[in-house]
Each structure stands twice: as C-alpha cells, then as structure tokens.
Amino acid sequence: MRIGILNSGGDCPGLNAVIHGVVGAAHQLGWEVIGFRDGFEGLLPPGDFRVLKPSDTIGILKLGGTILGSTNKGHFAAKIGVGDVAEVPKEIIDRAKKTIDQMEIRALIIVGGDGSLTTGLQLFKAGWPIVGVPKTIDNDLSATAMSFGFDSAVTTVVDGLDRLNTTAESHKRIMVLEVMGRHAGWIALWGGIAGGANVILLPEIPFSFEKVADFIKQRDAQGYHSSLVVVAEGAKMPDGELVTIDKNTSGEVRLGGIGEQISARLEELTGKEARSCTLGHLQRGGAPTALDRILGMRFGVKAVKLAEEGAFGRMVSYEAYHVDSVPIEEAVNKLRLVESDGEVVQAAKSVGICLGD
Ligand code: F6P
Question: Domain tally for the chain?
Fold first, then answer.
C-alpha cells in the first residue's frame, strides 16, 4: 500500500508535525508514504516527490515551515478573489491523475486551508481517494473548532504585545499592532486578550474612531498613559472598506495597512503620539508551539486512519478535545468567524477591553 501527502496553500507552524504523524502511523501499517513537493504542483508529470521514511522525519516535529514545500498559486487554484470558486481545468486534473495511477497511490492526504480543500473536494468528486487535513493560522475553517498553527500565531502576537507594552509605557504612546487572520478576527481576539491589549478591532465588529479615541483619552485621565491596540488586517474602516495592498496572482486581495491608518487617526483624535507595527509573516514562521505539535501529529495519525477505513472525501476535524472527521464538503466555502456577541467577546468586554463598538 502506498499513500501520498502534500501541503498546499500558505505555510503554517505544525505542517511538519502532520507529516511526522502520517509517516509514523503509515509505517506501523507497513505502508509507504510519498511526499509531493510544492503542493499540487508536485503531482504534475513527471511528478516531483520524495519517499518519506520514518528516518526522514526525525527531528521535524519542532520545525516550522514544511519539508515538502508549499504554494498558494499554480495550476490547481480553486478559489479566486474573495472566495469565488473556480473549477480546476480537467486537463490539469487528468495529467495529475496519471502520476497518481502510475505510482499506485491509494490515498492522497491534502493538508490545506479553504482553497486547497476546495481543490481536494473537486479531485474527490473526480474519483480521487482524498483525505483532507485542515491547516490555517487564521482558524477560520468551519467544521473544526481549531486548526494547528493558530496557537503558534497567537503566541507570536502575545510576544509582540509584551515587547510593545514596555516601549509604549516608556514613551506614553499608543502602539497599534496589525495582525493576520484574513477575514476572521480569531488571531486578533485571542492574541489581544492574552497579550493584554486595551483595544481589539475585528473584521466582525464595526468600530468607530471616536469611541476608540474616547476610550484612550479616558485611560489617560485615569493615569494610564500608554495603550495597546490590536487590529486584525481584515477589520473594515468605519466606511466599510477593507485596507488592501493589492491582489495576489490568483486574484485574491492581499490585506494590509490598516494599522498605519488607525495609528494616524488616533494620533489626530487623542493628541497622543501613536506608532504602528505589522507582525506579518512572523506569525507564520518559526517553531510550532507544543499544542500545535501535538494537534498536527494527531491530525496526521487520524488522516492515515481515515485512509485505512477508506473514508475518502472526509477532512480531519477537532471538536471538544477530540480528533474526528467531517465530509470535506461541510468544511469548505463557509468561514468560521468570531461571533460578535459570543462568549469570548463578552469576556473581553467584561475585563474592560474596548472592541470599538
Ligand atoms: O491565510 C494565512 C495568511 O497568513 C493570512 O492570515 C494572510 O492574510 C495571508 O495568508 C498572507 O498570504 P501571503 O503569504 O500570500 O501574503
């Protein structure tokens, strides 16, 4: 029995932990694992791959990135713009299928986010033996309570806020930290709470500059002369606009720049000095946290179990501390967003954090 694995989309701490789990579990069954390089691209003839033996995975659990490489562009893009679905060309699917057939790959494990799993679903519908594993630092995939990578990104935000806090206090400044998360506010919300932010601005909750400025002025009057503001890159300006850099090669908007705009406006409205900092890809790089290593490894093991059961077209999921699975169809094309009146948002408000509303 021979199975394949590929990582697709943006990288994410914990991808190597999944590979570690897959190779370990497959080895126990006497299966061979083929790792395809650079996402789906590695499937195109003549095939770009390596055989993954347990000895190849020694020490990778703690490594960031992915030993297989990944890409969020190329021939297999199934998402265009803000979430529109595109069909992967039949000619591309047929060419890639030749590799799968010639190599006698009996299951293909796709580790990816919404876009890559949408491709996976199309391949499954074309008759491929697909098993999905959810991957995203944004934690925005529906049908799973958590994906690996999220905890590592949050930990980086917390580290950033701890550092910004000391300089903010020294200079009695407002420090604005822009964080990733695309159209979901999970990284901002969790990172902001854990890092002691005073203001957290999310895509899911419209904010007003006046409310945030009043809150900061009040803090000042109470003797708290510095303030930490966390803003999600996908938060919308009060006029409802996203702040974008440009579009990437698959037509998707690249978010970025809202932190600068917020900092400038708050400086005007409060009369206090403000600076902005963008964490960017620091949130995606580096070693995974212990939680993401364990989650990634368990997801990998579960993916092999699904392959063993012939449960194709399913995605590994996580719910109430259990690793389970759901049909891929249920997981894609709908984002899991922060509930604007949910328990975590309410808890943040209860401890005096301003959400700008
Ligand atoms: O989806 C993960 C993510 O890091 C988002 O949070 C971010 O908006 C995007 O990818 C950045 O993508 P790229 O690496 O292509 O700039």
Answer: 2
pTM: 0.96
Just list the catalytic residues. Answer: 138
Is residue 352 in some structural domain? no
Atom of ligand 1 nearest to the CA of 284: 4
Residue 81 maps to which CATH number? 3.40.50.450
**How many A from CA of 203 to the centre of ligand 1?**
15
**Domain range for 78:** 2-148+288-331
Q: Using one digit for the tens of pLDDT, what is the confidence trace for 69-104?
A: 999 888 998 876 666 888 999 999 999 999 999 999
CA nearest neighbour of 107 among 300, 308, 327, 297: 308
* C-alpha to C-alpha distance for 136 and 296, rounded to whole angstroms: 11
